[in-house]
Design a protein that fits this description.
Elements: H1 2-8, H2 13-18, E1 53-60, H3 64-78, H4 84-91, E2 102-106, H5 113-119, E3 127-132, E4 135-144, E5 155-157, H6 159-168, E6 174-178, H7 182-187, E7 194-195, H8 201-204, H9 208-211, E8 217-221, H10 226-237, E9 243-246, H11 249-253
Parallel strand pairs: 5-9, 6-7, 6-8, 8-9
Antiparallel strand pairs: 1-2, 1-4, 3-4
Length: 263
C-alpha cells in the first residue's frame, strides 16, 4: 500500500496517503451540463479509458453539507461562473489545492476503487462525483492516454551535458531551473538558471507556466539531485513533458566548472 501511495499523487505526499487504501490548466474550463448525482457521471456519458488518465479533484468532507457544496460547485461550473482550478484552489481539502487540484497522471491500481472507477469512466474535460473513505470528490479528467501510450517520466541529465547548454548560451532553447534556497544560490550558481526554491513551491507552482514554457526541455538542479527530483515530479504533474534532473546537482557541476564554488 505504501508503494501505491507514493505513485498516486506527484509531489503531494499528503494525497499519496489519501489515495492509498487499496495541457496546462485552462482558465476557461467548459463543462458539459448534466445532472449532478452521487452516482458520478451519467451512464450515457461514460467511457472506459484504457491507459493512464490525468486528473484534478476537489475534496470536501463526507457529509451532506459537503455534498451540497459540491452540487453548488457543479452549478457554477455548468454556468461557467467559476473554473474548476479556481474552486479547487479555494475549497479543496487536499494539498493538491495549491496546484488547482491537479494530481497528474494515474494508472489503474494506484487509487482507491471508487476514485479509480469514476476517473477511468469519465470523458476528458468532464466532471463527475465520487465518494471515497476520505470524503466527497468532484473529479475532472484532464487528459487520457491510449493503452500502452507512454506517460511523461523524469529523465536524468549529466552535468557535462548541462555545461554544453551553458557554454553555448542556448538559454532560449531550454528552461533552466534551480530549486535550491536563496542563501545557497548566493554562494554558488550557474549562468542561465532561474531560482525557484522548493520551499516556496506552493506559491510559484501556480504561476510557473507563465514564466517558463512547458513545451520546452526543462532542466532542474539542486545541490545533490534529491530536491530537484521532487520538483521534476511536480512539473510533470503540471503538464511539463520533457523534464530532466541534473545528476549530482551543482555539487557535481562544480567539479567540471571551477568558477562555481563548492559548498
Amino acid at each position: 500500500e505504501t508503494t501505491k501511495m507514493s505513485l498516486a499523487c506527484a509531489y503531494s505526499s499528503a494525497f499519496r496517503r489519501l489515495l492509498s487504501a487499496s495541457a496546462r490548466p485552462s482558465t476557461a474550463s467548459r463543462i458539459r451540463r448534466r445532472t449532478f448525482s452521487v452516482s458520478s457521471s451519467s451512464e450515457s456519458s461514460k467511457v472506459n479509458h484504457e491507459g493512464a488518465v490525468k486528473v484534478s479533484h476537489i475534496l470536501v468532507d463526507a457529509t451532506e453539507p459537503g455534498k451540497a457544496l459540491l452540487s453548488e460547485f457543479q452549478t457554477l461550473l455548468d454556468g461557467e461562473a467559476e473554473t474548476f482550478e479556481g474552486l479547487a484552489t479555494m475549497h479543496s481539502k487536499c494539498p493538491s489545492s495549491s496546484r488547482g487540484g491537479n494530481l497528474g497522471y494515474i494508472t489503474r491500481g494506484q487509487t482507491v476503487a471508487e476514485f479509480e472507477r469514476v476517473a477511468f469512466s469519465t470523458p476528458v474535460n468532464e466532471v463527475a462525483f465520487a465518494t471515497t473513505p476520505f470524503g466527497h470528490h468532484l473529479i475532472k479528467v484532464l487528459d487520457a492516454k491510449e493503452s500502452g501510450q507512454a506517460v511523461p517520466q523524469m529523465q536524468s541529465i549529466r552535468v557535462d551535458e548541462v555545461k554544453q547548454y551553458v557554454d553555448s548560451e542556448s538559454f532560449s532553447e531550454v528552461n533552466l531551473i534551480d530549486c535550491r534556497e536563496e542563501h545557497e544560490f548566493a554562494i554558488a550558481k550557474v549562468d542561465g538558471f532561474k531560482l525557484y526554491p522548493l520551499s516556496r513551491a506552493e506559491k510559484w507552482q501556480m504561476t510557473i507556466e507563465m514564466d517558463v514554457d512547458p513545451e520546452k526541455k526543462t532542466i532542474v538542479m539542486c545541490h545533490g539531485g534529491i530536491r530537484s527530483a521532487k520538483v521534476c515530479q511536480m512539473l510533470l504533474s503540471l503538464g511539463f513533458e520533457d523534464v530532466h534532473n541534473v545528476v549530482g546537482g551543482i555539487d557535481a557541476y562544480s567539479s567540471i566548472d571551477k568558477s562555481v564554488p563548492r559548498y
